[in-house]
Amino acid sequence: MKNKFAIGIPTLNRADLLIPSLESYIKDFPSVDIYIVDNGGQIEILNWVSKSKNNHVHLHPQQENLGVAKSWNFLLNEIYKDNEYAMILNDDIYLGFTKQYVEGLIEKYQSQVLLTNPIDWCVFVLPKSTYEANGKFDEQFYPAYCEDNDYVYRLKLRGQKVFKTPDLLPKVHRASMTLERDYTIQTAYHENKERYIEKWGGAPDFELFKKPYNN
Fold first, then answer.
1. Helix (H, G, I), strand (E, B) or coil at 95
2. Rounded CA separation 30/71 (Å)
3. Does residue 176 register a pLDDT over 90?
4. Could you count the other beta carbons within 10 Å of the beta carbon of residue 46?
5. C-alpha 65, offset from chain centre
6. What is the Cα–Cα distance from 59 to 52, expressed in whole angstroms?
7. What is the band of 143 on the pLDDT scale with cuts at 50, 70, 90?
8. 116 in the Ramachandran plot: left (φ > 0), alpha (ψ -120 to 50) or beta?
9. What is the per-residue pLDDT for 209?
10. 131 vs 174, which has greater pLDDT?
11. Rounded CA gap, 117 and 193, in Å?
């Protein structure tokens, strides 16, 4: 029986947090495909995937850091080849969900264009139909920050909005632990905020333009 969704996880430098979660995910989601984009060449993940011999885990090592937006786009394009829904996760969380639970959420919120939890985008569920209509995440926001705001605003311009639900709160939430090992990502926030203002005429929630760059 075909699954309703697959899982995508971008990672950079927290193999120590991701691997324990993966150990649980292959039990929680035994028949669900899990796609991993490793932007950091983490040998620990390569070794774990090789040893697990699980044909539902698909590792895509990268020669350089694709950044969040490009990683999400890569994962979504892989997932949508065979699935109508994608569940994208941070590498520093553990869901504590089951396949049946996620399928229940998809059924419950099938009219929504995008699901997140009330805190952040550490886990989100995106239907293929939304991605095809709203387009890919803007990869100019590199390596991280504002790519989610941009997507939300573009949905707003189309008369749609994100649905936030506590049903997507993970069991373990470590809040951007990647920054502990690479603070250069933090410095990107200010640069990407300026890019966002240039594109939309104002910071997130204060946009002025109805078209990118007011064109």
1. coil
2. 24
3. no
4. 14
5. 15
6. 12
7. very high
8. beta
9. 98
10. 131
11. 23
Query: Residue 55's CB: how many other CB atoms inside 10 A?
Result: 7
Pull the structure tokens for residue 93: 């969380």
Residue whose tokens read 């292959």? 26
Tokens 């999400």 label which residue? 72
Q: What is the domain class of 5-214 according to CATH? A: alpha beta
Per-residue model confidence (pLDDT) at position 177: 57
Q: What is the CB-side half-sphere exposure of residue 73 using CA atoms within 13 A?
A: 18
What are phi and psi for residue 204, nearest 5 degrees?
Answer: -50, 130
Q: What contacts 96, CB < 8 A, 6 or more positions away? A: 28, 170, 171, 172
pLDDT at 184 over 90: no
**Cα Rg for the chain, rounded, in angstroms?**
17
Would the pLDDT of 154 be above 60? yes
Amino acid type, 1: M
In contact, 47 and 129? CB cutoff 8 Å: no
Q: How, if at all, do strands 115-116 and 163-164 pair? A: parallel
- Locate the domains of the chain by residue range: 5-214
Q: Nearest Cα to 10, choosing from 46, 34, 44?
A: 34
Give the span between the Cα atoms of 169 and 190, in whole angstroms: 28
Residue-wise pLDDT for 6-60, tens only, equals 999 999 999 999 999 999 999 999 999 999 999 999 999 999 999 999 999 999 9
Distance CA 78, CA 10 (A): 13
Token reading at 173:
């939430």
